[in-house]
Design brief:
The complex is a heterodimer of chains A (260) and B (373). Chain A has 260 residues and is of the alpha+beta class. Helices cover 32% and strands 32% of the residues of chain A. Chain A has helices at 26-30, 52-67, 96-104, 137-145, 170-174, 203-212, 217-234, 245-256; strands at 18-22, 33-38, 41-48, 71-81, 84-89, 109-112, 115-119, 125-126, 132-135, 155-158, 161-166, 181-190, 197-200, 236-242. In chain A, strands 4, 5, 6, 7, 8, 12, 13 and 14 form an eight-stranded mixed sheet that branches. In chain A, strands 1-2-3 form a three-stranded antiparallel sheet, with helices on one face. In chain A, helix 3 runs parallel beside helix 4 and helix 3 crosses helix 8 (245-256). Chain B has 373 residues and is an alpha/beta fold. Chain B has a single domain, classed as 2-Layer Sandwich (Beta Polymerase, domain 2), CATH 3.30.460. Chain B is built from 16 helices and seven strands. Chain B has helices spanning 6-12, 22-34, 38-47, 56-86, 98-104, 127-136, 146-155, 188-194, 209-220, 229-243, 249-260, 263-277, 283-289, 296-309, 322-337, 340-363, and strands at residues 94-97, 118-121, 139-141, 162-164, 170-174, 196-197, 204-206. Chain B has a seven-stranded mixed sheet. In chain B, helix 2 runs parallel beside helix 4. The radius of gyration of chain B is 21 Å and the shape is globular. The chains are: A alpha+beta (260), B alpha/beta (373). The A-B interface holds A 10-15, 17, 27, 36, 38-45, 47, 62, 66-70, 159, 218-221 and B 21-23, 25-26, 29-30, 33-34, 55, 57-58, 60-61, 63-65, 67-68, 70-71, 74, 314-315, 362, 365-372.
């Protein structure tokens, strides 16, 4: 999953020191479990060894969400095209990871499928371009939609159901340090029968959604309020209902082309 | 001093950070985070106008810690306001202790400090009234187990912590500063008499400077788990440097400690502040504490332990004997907390309950949730 990344040299500064280590003891011999360690200290409860990689990803998300308060952290996917970023916020199940996974296989650059890091001073969004988390039915949807995408095998019975991780495209990984200027806030709304529709979304509702989906909105206080306000002012807000990724690609391409 | 952890050295001499290599920054941030001192360091760096000279990657961690600390300060002020409103009907002074007291008195100790819960002190005869008013305003009791209730109410210096149902914040309501069962008997009435009002907050009080130092010392040197030990030692250092400039502070300190029954904790506080943090302490004060100081063997044992325990709880800082030292101090804290027969009874109760809990845990694998705090 991280083949496109460099390893951190021993003598460099690392943001976080994490490990996933197999638990010892009789119980774990019968039913092997592993645990996430943050800088040498166990965090979270142990999980079955098969979920180790997913646990690493969840653990890293926690590291960022709990320690990255130099940013306003919003629970949203972020993708970019020609210097303009689309922020896709939404509750779990609204289809943001699937939409994001689909679009990054068709020319959009991945910043993040889960954590939008908004720099309060510059108004730019940063991403880490880590693997995309796919859940349940999305796994097969993406497998069919992008047969060449590199994915882990499905891991069943996690707290989020069956999950698989997808490696981001090489171009996204190569550009991972480049932030992007937000241009659109698009609230995805997947429903199996929906016909594709991109409609302007109420700006006040978009504001509330971003604030609600932010992990550290309260920590930033007044500055956080002002930053979300500026973000909304700088973006077009839409709601996007869809049931098919091909439709999504077409509509998002038109959006990026400036037709909307 | 030279054997100190990097975070300790950087806090004592912030200009040190201008010459750090990348791996040293890596270590400094980790030690600071673990010891809950990262925001304090960030604050010192800002104060000395050195932030521009910190490389961008560690800088972002310092800024993050500063944001968090700022937020905790304003949340703490609001929480105190809520408590005062809830206790508006109780005709009694509310004395803030520890972190909340440092913050509301605008002491330098509060700068970049992290806060968890609010600690207040009220006279014992008011406890029931305060507790019921807090309950009426949304705080709920914790530790509903019969034994815990008995343990707190019979032996402790506080009632079981209360948690606000909506905000999730915690308050510890104390009626004195050490457990009732503790070996050291504190003259609590004197603490109440000398408390001073926080300007602009009605019935809100904090302990007088000398008492604040003595309470901080007593608290730290009765503590069994020293996860925040180094942070608390820095609190003491900061209080001593700040109050040390007040006329009479040093003259009052030892006599007051004797009056309250806190000579021994004061002795340790001054000893380790000066040994580890180089806190300036007048020689007369050291001499005043000479009579009644621990026997040489006890003293060297305590040196061994505290010099190994008052460090960041990070693997880069552990040395030979740290494990032994923390275990010893843990046992010592229980020893100080209650008489031996009671201690045996208490530990047996706890051991039995923990082993049942562990058995249940292995039977059912609980669902993964948030990390441990």
């Amino acid at each position: 999953m991280y083949a496109g990344f460099d390893t951190c040299p021993e003598d460099a500064f690392a943001d976080f020191h994490v490990a996933v280590i197999r638990e010892s003891g009789l119980l774990n011999w019968m039913k092997p479990r592993a645990r996430f360690y943050f800088d040498g200290r166990p965090s979270f409860i142990p999980l079955p060894v098969s979920q180790s990689f997913a646990m690493l990803e969840w653990g890293l998300n926690w590291c960022v969400a709990a320690h990255g308060h130099q940013y306003l952290i919003i629970h949203a996917a972020v993708i970019e095209r020609e210097g303009r970023a689309a922020i896709l916020p939404g509750a779990p199940g609204a289809g943001k990871s699937t939409l994001c996974a689909g679009l990054i296989n068709r020319g959009w650059r991945l910043l993040s499928d889960e954590l939008a890091l908004l720099d309060l001073d510059s108004g730019l969004v940063c991403g880490m371009c880590r693997p995309v988390n796919l859940k349940n039915a999305s796994i097969d949807v993406i497998r069919r939609f992008a047969p060449h995408a590199v994915m882990t095998g499905p891991v069943p019975d996690t707290t989020k159901g069956t999950i698989a991780l997808m490696r981001p495209p090489e171009e996204s990984i190569a550009a991972r340090d480049a932030p992007a200027r937000p241009a659109w806030i698009i609230v995805p709304d997947y429903s199996p029968e929906a016909s594709p529709e991109l409609v302007p979304h109420d700006r006040a509702l978009a504001f509330m959604l971003l604030a609600e989906q932010s992990f550290n909105y309260d920590i930033h206080g007044k500055n956080g309020f002002a930053a979300v306000g500026r973000l909304i002012d700088a973006c077009h807000c839409y709601r996007f209902s869809y049931s098919n990724l091909e439709d999504a690609v077409r509509i998002f391409d038109r959006l990026a082309g400036g037709c909307e | 001093m030279s054997g100190n952890a990097l975070i300790t050295r950087a806090l004592l001499l912030p200009s040190l950070v201008t010459g750090l290599s990348a791996p040293e920054w890596d270590l400094l941030v980790r030690q600071g985070r673990r010891a809950n001192l990262l925001a304090r360091l960030a604050h010192r760096i800002v104060e000395q106008q050195l932030m521009d000279r910190v490389p961008p990657r560690p800088r972002s961690h310092l800024l993050s810690a500063l944001r968090m600390a700022d937020r905790q300060s304003s949340a703490m002020r609001w929480e105190v306001e809520c408590i005062l409103r809830a206790l508006a009907g109780v005709d009694e002074r509310v004395i803030l202790l520890k972190g909340a007291a440092y913050l509301l008195s605008d002491l330098p100790t509060a700068k970049g400090r992290t806060f968890a819960d609010v600690d207040i002190l009220v006279p014992k005869q008011r406890i029931a009234e305060v507790e019921s008013q807090l309950m009426l305003h949304g705080w709920q009791g914790t530790h509903h187990d019969d034994y815990d209730q008995h343990y707190y109410r019979q032996w402790m210096h506080e009632i079981p912590p209360m948690r606000h149902v909506k905000r999730g914040t915690s308050i510890d309501v104390h009626h004195t500063v050490l457990p009732e069962s503790a070996r050291l008997k504190i003259n609590t009435a004197l603490l109440f008499q000398s408390a001073i009002a926080v300007p602009g907050h009605g019935r809100l009080y904090v302990l007088a400077p000398v008492d604040m130092v003595l309470h901080s010392a007593t608290h730290l040197f009765h503590e069994g788990t020293l996860d925040n030990g180094l942070r608390d030692l820095f609190d003491l250092d900061c209080l001593l440097r700040h109050f040390g400039a007040i006329p009479d502070f040093w003259e009052q300190l030892v006599p007051r400690a004797a009056e309250l029954g806190m000579r021994r904790p004061l002795y340790y506080a001054l000893r380790y502040c000066s040994k580890i943090l180089n806190t300036p302490i007048p020689v007369e004060v050291i001499n005043e504490l000479e009579p009644g100081k621990p026997a040489p063997i006890i003293s060297s044992m305590m040196d061994f332990c505290y010099q190994r325990a008052l460090i960041p709880q990070h693997h880069s800082c552990s040395t030979k004997g740290s494990r032994l030292a923390t275990t010893f101090l843990y046992i010592r804290s229980h020893w100080l907390r209650m008489p031996f027969p009671l201690l045996v009874q208490h530990l047996l109760r706890k051991a039995m309950r923990n082993s049942t809990a562990r058995a249940w845990e292995t039977l059912f694998t609980p669902a993964p949730e948030k990390p441990e705090p």
